[in-house]
Amino acid sequence: MAALLAVGTAALAPMAAMAAQLDNDARSVIPKNVQQIIVVDYRAMQNSQAAMDLKARVLPPPLKQLEEAMKNSGFNENHDVEELAFAAFRVSEQDTKTIGIAQGQFDLPDIMATLKKNKIKPQVVRDNKLYPMGKSGMLVVFLNPTTMVFGSSDSLKLAMDVRDGLAPSLLTNSSMLQQMTSVDTEPLWSIMDDQGTQFMMHGLLGEASQLTDYNSIKKRLLGSRYTMNFQNGVKFNLVVSTPDTFTAATMSSLLNAAAMYKKVSGTAVEKSAIDDTTIDSSAGDLEVSFAASDSQFSTLLQSPLFHSVVQ
């Protein structure tokens, strides 16, 4: 059940079967104070109905805006884009920005010729040219023939500051890079920092958070990572890092309690989903895994429990 909760809270764009890695150009444009990164094998998206169903239900508005901007920009995402990433980063305690990063093979001479023909002029930020993406209000900048970055004007200008060395990048964030090495060989993966993890886990615990002083425990949640795979059913794995065995075991107990709370009032499908979830701890890690067939997962998406989780 905790896995289902985490899917609803954190899984934003599922895929299947090939590794999705960020190259150094992509990493160099993401600010150091990144809250969450989600990377997907965009080529495989259309091959799984379960993946498409989940994305339709849980993709948050900011990411929907970015994806729609991509679709309406004139770039053919099905052929040009191989991997798609979203990075949410903090500008202040109250302000979070998001950028999208597309990796693939882009015919830059042809794209530039089309932009020139249509008399589309860029905003210029130092040596960076930021082009409007149709009528979406988003802008795009091509770092090279294989990487482009897109987002709102404010978000993209901040990313260019990072790219040009005026602000620190993800490459200087050792904790997030360490999380990344554990998951970036998977077709869909995400990493979150400590604050993002703390917020996610509070949502997962629900009423179970009242069983203990969660405000004191949450400070010991250091970060998290998850992977999803839609090949031969749906598989989800979440790992939350803590500094010691005791904290991980405590979180495991709390999540198991949350699962039991949900199971009491759940439907037959929901109870089955809870039974298909494993919650455990190993050393300083909380580990959650979930597996279901495509048909079971599609049915689960229609359930009241799933709707309550993703709100």
TrEMBL record:
Keywords: Signal. The keyword Signal applies. The keyword Signal applies. Residues 1-19 form the signal peptide. It comes from the Bacteria. This is DUF2066 domain-containing protein. It comes from Silvibacterium dinghuense.
